[in-house]
Amino acid sequence: MNFKFYMFGGPKIFDLYHGNAEELAYFQQFDDESNKENTQLTIHRRTNGQVMYLYLKHNFLTSTNRRNAFWGMAIAFNNEYIADVNTLCFLFDEVYNKILQERVLFEEISGNPTVQAKFLVPLFSDAEFEVKRIEDVVRKNIEKNFTKDILQIDTSFQEGRANVVRRMSYPESQSDSNSEIISALRAYRWVSLSPDYKTGDSDDLSVEKIKELKDNPKYIKDRVLEAFKQIAMSRENITINVDEIIAKYGGAINITLTEIEPYLSIHPDLENTMKEYRTLKSYINDLDKAWREKQGVPKPPILDTTVRDPNDPYQGGSKTLPPPPPYERNNWKGKIIGVGGVIILFAIVGLSVRFCSSKDTETPTQEPTSGTTSSPTQTVVMSRDVIKQKLQVMVEEALQLCKEGEYAESANAWKEYGAYQQQHDSIKGDAYSSWGVLVKEMENYANIKENYASHYSSAQNFEKQKKYDEAIKEYKICIDLLIALPDSQMTNNKKVCNEAIARCKKAKASAESTTSSVTIMVKQRNKDVKMDKGYVNVTPGQITVSVKKPLSNGKWECENQHIVIKEQNEEKATLQADGNDFWTCKLYYKVNGQTKETINFKRKELSK
Predict the structure, then answer these.
(1) pLDDT of res. 353
(2) Rounded distance, CA 399 to CA 414, Å?
(3) Quick one: pLDDT band at residue 140, thresholds 50, 70, 90?
(4) Crossing angle, helix 270-295 and helix 207-233, to 10 degrees?
């Protein structure tokens, strides 16, 4: 009997005890904040031969009181399975209850039905002894009590549907029959048991499929926008296969929408994902229209030619009908002139392409005017819906640039949005009609960010020169500037500045504490004055004092009003002694209010 033990979850951020980078990615997919079940035992027959038993607890608080955290432990066999699932469920339950009693890893939250427990450590390694003890308990129990229940995966186990999980009732007692669970495991790659499943046996989407559904829109959008970019900017050959993108993703999106629909009652958060796919579908329709117009010959849309492939419709698994023959590339320059307006209009993807200034008409087509090439050309007319969609894309681009801290670029994106909006007077930008204000705001953010960079560089230079007070002052200015910027971009910078201030204060205190005394030199009439029996003999008039190793925040003070400090800095001071009333005086060199050195002045009798 050979198996691996894992512990994973979100004590502060996602953490995994035992495991490599590949396994980290696998376990991290179970960190789903939309999950409402308190307890699950999920069995997964992986394609690599592993059979994974995952005991999951949701609705935890992190060690910093963030909601929707989770905790789990898992055991993994190679091509083997546990026949007595009921007993395994009760073993995991007992281990979990024991952890609650020990109150080392996490503690139970009573009186709150939406929260089960709270983590007491930010990392599992902070309670390593406890984690190893839990592993030992699980391992010894399985090795002792499950010897006859660890069986080989045989041919009775089917390929199974990788994207679907079979949901079943959690066993009420150890004597419950395991036959239904094992039968489900033979037919499905995923089986999940929970006492919170109230509707009996049913199907659900697997966590891998849900993650794929949520991740794919960004990938598809990037591909579609890249196609828009090449259509808008390319004067030579277009390197991307636009026909393939239109056929592959257009058809796959239709399949995806059909796949999601039955599971919305279980995962209402997927409604937002469906909206993303519907938006992508409209983008692909626009891409198809632009592509046909660029070729100069009408071509019927081929969005629904994809035949469903259950393996994977996104990563090359879709089957499509043969695309139409490639268009002829002769007389290319003439066609480019005819569709120039179209190309520019589709540059709304935010990729630095300027728009033409002429307004689109509402008529279906427009005949070529005199002076154009004799090649057959036509101008695309943008419908109101298409224009609104373009405006929406431009808004998303501008907001994304702001989110990423690219404020100057965001300002330019808002300018292009405004220009395009004004170009189409019939379409009003309902959501962002005050785009001019947003341009100024982004430009202001860009100036603040530039100012921040300047002060931060200055602070670093002062710190290198060990001028810690100046460095601290500059770092504080940086923090004040960051307050005016969006938190999402600059929170980490604020943390860096605070750490730098603490570092400077520590270095400054260390430098000052290692200096036990300060050597002061006295000059009068540019000549050194020596100490005589504890006093410095000087004549009335101007006196200069200085220190060999000046300290940050060094200050000079006199106790006699008949000596005036005319000017001073950390290194030296110029004193003026009154000729009539000056007889003795004490001069102090202080740092942060503490005296580092004292000089006693005594009036030297003038020679007769």
Answers:
(1) 30
(2) 9
(3) very high
(4) 30
